Amino acid sequence: MSLVDCLKAVCDGRSSCVAFPNTPLYNLRWVRPYNLDIPVVPAAVIRPDNAQDVSGAVKCAVKHDVPVQAKSGGHSYANFGTGGEDGAVMVDLQNLKNFSMNEDTWEASFGPGFRLGELDEYLHDNGGRAIAHGTCPSVGVGGHATIGGLGPMSRMWGSALDHVEEVEVVTADGEIRRASYTENADLFFGMKGAGASFGIVTEFKVHTHPEPGEVVEYTYSISFGSAEEMADVYRDWQALIGDPELDRRFSSLLIAQPLGALITGTFYGTEEEYKATGIPDKIPGGGVADVKLLGWLGSLAHQAEVAGLHLASLSTAFASRSLAFAEGDLLGDEAIDELFAYIDKADKGSLIWTIIWNSEGGAMADFAAGNSYPHRDKLMMYQSYVVGIPGVSDATRKFVEGVQERIRDAAPNANTTYAGYIDPTLDRAAANQFYWGEHVPRLREIKAKWDPNSVFRNPQSIEPAE
């Protein structure tokens, strides 16, 4: 039986279940790559309805020696949800949206097909509950909660994956298993941080929190000034978020873009509690400030709006780089001046560019055990994001590399980043170290046990130990 016939048999005659390169509008309607600068053509796209369908798809791929990658929201910077390179079976999880809430334990169980915005609504409607995650509502929870899931709530509650207590997962032999801290704990360790290399989650079980009653949202807009002025703003902001004792209820972004900069602050508490922390006096001033008092869902919508994330689901051609910073890696005055002078003068090759610095730390340091997310000592991350129309130009590539080089020169020990901010220019070995650091040897041993033939693979996935 061919791969085509095998996957059709899994679908059992269901329409809109599986497609192949000769299917009309295959790339537009089925593959839907996120980064148009990295063309990828999967051997097939299947949209399972349940874990049994996922199991069948994996068994078909194994039989025909074809790699497998799952796609949830599809926001991979290198299109790893489509396989990352031609010829994979892409398992699109969009139909897996079961949801239940245990009102005794307040643990929620749900499928990986949810987008974050949808999941928030379900959690809200089932007891006013919440979990930490990123700010983009169109991101899929399947990849987000197996790679990290960083956002404004992370300093208070940890990352999205820190909420995961158990998963139902299809492994490389096509079997459907449970994994948790006590059952298949090694597999669980790999799934929580490097999930794309170890299996496909078909259900998450997570602990939840009561929604915060009030949220203070602060947005400070700065019209574009001189490089020196922007450097001073960054210096003050970094001093604020670089404090390892910063109140965990507060998080912040600094967003540099063509027309100026935005500084956002999110505080989970009342306005009086916010003022009592002393943080308002430390946020850089001189621009136009907008302070809002919002409820939980309102704050999530506000965060997405301020960061322009209503456009984040659009497919574009873009280039991006990123680094993570521990306390000792924060930039010195001379490096800050040089960086903002470069950003001011460099040819970006595009009018659509953003450089984002975000606060980390706080509760992220509390969840080091039992998972493979390594950046627990980091206080800050940055990422550049430049869109090219119609494609990414040489000038754009040079610009993002220039920003990266200047920061790395100033902070030579900042040599890792979050695996959600993929750098497709890295080879496999370098990428593994860049994303997972000290956990790589253990991850390779776990890979050798659970997926020795690398059924689940992309250009930067974990390789099995020899």
Automatic annotation (TrEMBL):
- Domain FAD-binding PCMH-type: residue ranges: 38-211
Q: Which InterPro entries match?
A: BBE, FAD-bd_PCMH, FAD-bd_PCMH-like_sf, FAD-bd_PCMH_sub2, FAD-linked_Oxidoreductase, Oxid_FAD_bind_N, Oxy_OxRdtase_FAD_BS
TM spans, by residue? none
SUPFAM superfamilies associated with the record: FAD-binding/transporter-associated domain-like (SSF56176)
The record's GO molecular-function terms, alphabetically, read: FAD binding; oxidoreductase activity
For this UniProt record, the keywords arranged alphabetically read as follows:
FAD, Flavoprotein, Oxidoreductase
Tell me where on the tree of life, at the top rank, the source sits. Answer: Eukaryota
Which family is it part of? Belongs to the oxygen-dependent FAD-linked oxidoreductase family.
Descriptive protein name: Putative FAD-linked oxidoreductase-like protein
